[in-house]
Amino acid sequence: MARQEFEMSQADLDGIMAKINAARSAPLIMLQCGPVRSLQEVANDAWAELGGRLGFDPMTVERGRSDRHFTAVAVNVAAEA
Questions:
Q1: Which of 76, 78, 54, 38 lies closest to 5 in space, CA to CA?
Q2: In this structure, what DSSP letter does residue 59 have?
Q3: CA 21 to CA 17: how far, in whole Å?
Q4: Which of 68, 78, 59, 67 is nearest to 3 (CA)?
Q5: What pLDDT shows up at residue 62?
Q6: What is each CA distance from 77 to 13, 21, 54, 55, 57, in whole angstroms?
Q7: Is residue 62 helix, strand or coil?
Q8: What gap in Å lies between CA 42 and CA 71, rounded to an integer?
Q9: pTM across the whole model
Q10: Taking a C-beta distance cutoff of 8 angstroms, is the pair 51, 29 a contact?
Q11: Is 34 left (phi over 0), alpha (psi -120 to 50) or beta?
């Protein structure tokens, strides 16, 4: 499968960073609420959401030429729907 370059909007980048920063500030111990989600789980969910909107496999993302650019394997969104 061929890699393709994608560009997320500044709002998308800000949203991902906000989710990660919010997860960092979560209390380390939460009584009777279960374990806190890891930063990796939060980041994976944010990339999966973005991948669903932009049409790429979030597990194939590699850094691009800037914070908003990256490469990934494109998926056919219409075929998966």
A1: 54
A2: G
A3: 6
A4: 59
A5: 95
A6: 21, 29, 9, 6, 10
A7: strand
A8: 20
A9: 0.78
A10: no
A11: left
58/56 Cα distance (integer angstroms)? 6
For residue 73, the cross-strand partners are 3
What is the Cα–Cα distance from 22 to 25, expressed in whole angstroms? 5
Burial of 21 (0-12, 13-18, 19+ CB in 10 A): exposed
pLDDT digits (tens, 9 = 90+) for 11-60: 999 999 999 888 876 565 555 566 678 889 999 999 999 999 999 999 99
Amino acid identity, residue 67?
Answer: D
SS3 81: coil
Tell me which amino acid residue 78 is.
Answer: A
